[in-house]
Amino acid sequence: MSLKDQDPELYQAIENEKKRAKQGLELIASENYTSQAVLEAMGSILTNKYAEGYPHRRYYGGNEFIDQVEDLAIERAKKLFGAEHVNVQPYSGTPANIAVYVALVPLGEKIMAMKLAHGGHLSHGHKVSFTGQGWKFVHYGVNKEGWLDYDEIERLAKKEKPKLIVSGFTAYPRVVDFKKFHEIAKEVGAYSMADIAHIAGIIATGQHPSPLPFTDVVTTTTHKTLRGPRSAMIMCKKELAEKIDRAVFPGLQGGPHEHIIAAKAVCFKEAMQPEFKDYIKQVLKNAKTLALRLQNYGFELVSGGTDNHLMLVDLTNKKVTGKEAETALDKAGITVNKNMIPYDPRSPFDPSGIRIGTPAVTSRGMKEKEMEKITFWINKAIENYKDKKVLAEIKKEVIEVCQAFPVPGT
Ligand code: DSN
User: Fold this and answer.
1) Cα–Cα distance between 293 and 47 in angstroms, integer?
2) CATH match of 278-402 with 3.40.630.30
């Protein structure tokens, strides 16, 4: 029986979400739209199978085809990123990061990472995350202009002597010098780890310097710029393979989600195609256009611009808070997220900024012309953030333009 017939209530919720996706502009920097093929693999019968263990070393019978699926995902990921070893089983980004910490750093020992308020991640040792409770994190930040200061990071590493140094960020709009991070780690006898979740697609297509092969461990989610299923993986040097694999299973996880692993294999193949490289090129062009146009409207961008798919807008001079801007834009059919800016005097619940990204709108085929239109709407919505009528008018225009840009998979 079809979902529609068997469970109309749930079916309707999905249809509503489809409509929301089609009628709105998705500018959340970590979101994207997967292909039909990725969706198909995720919805396949592979979800039925238990496959605890690793390919050709399982705790259950009947895994000959599951092994083929996982082998394909591993081989493709290795090729795509030039990795020595890949574990495709982590369920998501945070569990992947925890698995690395478990594998390489005894509980209670020191790890260094970027603070959340400056563009890090909860799983990089924030106190409300288990990571911040299980290990002793020391945090670096960006300078007053919003840039990483490698001399300062080196000074802190020498003083604190962590066992692991984490690079990779969720709200840093500039190129990251992964080589420098690795060198600092080696200087103090630490492992180097890069969490490339946000920029994985940019790295895979050679449009941002890669942390591989020199970084000891690289984690990534697979659903952001990489445009795959909501999941993650860990890449590492051969000599760390056993530790990492053991930390994932049996250390932290049980049965792998082979339907999602299949979808990752599909995504890795897609990411090797010339069309994907062109897609990422456009993501970057769109981000540059959006950033420049916002600046023309008097918006201040942390670090003064962007080199990647995202930008951080400091709304202080606009006399609007991040929460007010997010709410107003929502009403106008434009989805962004409120975000702390470095040295933010406000709270995470109502910070001074918003984060904007172009991966999702670019997957719909939008280009520079649409980015200009989008900045016009963003400016208008923020200038009139209390005016329901203006926001409703913008929403109407947004819906009209969106009709010409189908959402993949809907
Ligand atoms: N939620 C992701 C982001 O938006 O960057 C990180 O987990």
Assistant:
1) 45
2) no
**Per-domain boundaries in the chain:** 38-271, 278-402
Distance CA 188, CA 163 (A): 8
Given the residues 11, 22, 31, 50, the one annotated as active site: 50
Nearest to 121 by CA among 312, 340, 325, 283: 340
Looking at the DSSP bridge assignments, the partners of residue 310 are: 357
Q: Could you report the per-residue pLDDT of 285-334, keeping only the tens digit for each?
A: 999 999 999 999 999 999 999 999 999 999 999 999 999 999 999 999 99
Condensed to tens digits (0 to 9), the pLDDT of residues 102-139 reads 999 999 999 999 999 999 999 999 999 999 999 999 99
Predicted local confidence at residue 107, as pLDDT:
98
What confidence score (pLDDT) does residue 104 get? Answer: 98
Q: Is the dihedral of CA 346, 349, 352, 353 positive or negative?
A: positive
Mean predicted confidence (pLDDT) in 46-50: 98
Average pLDDT of span 215-236? 98
- Ligand 1 atom 3, closest CA: 30
CA of 192 to the centre of ligand 1 (A): 21
Q: Which residues line ligand 1 (CB under 6 A)?
A: 30, 93, 121, 170
CB 229 within 8 A of CB 42: yes
Architecture of domain 38-271: 3-Layer(aba) Sandwich (3.40)
Would you call 195 a catalytic residue per the annotation?
Answer: yes
Residue 214 CA to residue 75 CA, distance in Å, equals: 19
How far, in Å, is the centroid of ligand 1 from the Cα of 197? 9
310 burial type by CB count under 10 A (0-12 exposed, 13-18 middle, 19+ buried): buried
Same fold, 38-271 and 278-402: no
The first and second tokens of residue 12, run together, are: 């309707």
With both helix axes pointing from N to C terminus, report the angle between 8-23 and 388-402 in degrees, rounded to the nearest 10: 90
| Angle ∠(101,104,108) on CA atoms, nearest 5 | 60
CA 375 to centroid of ligand 1, rounded, Å? 23
91 is catalytic: no
- Active-site position among 52, 71, 177, 397: 52
Give pLDDT, residue 182: 98
Paired strand residues for 352: none
pLDDT digits (tens, 9 = 90+) for 345-381: 999 999 999 999 999 999 999 999 999 999 999 999 9
Global pTM exceeds 0.90: yes
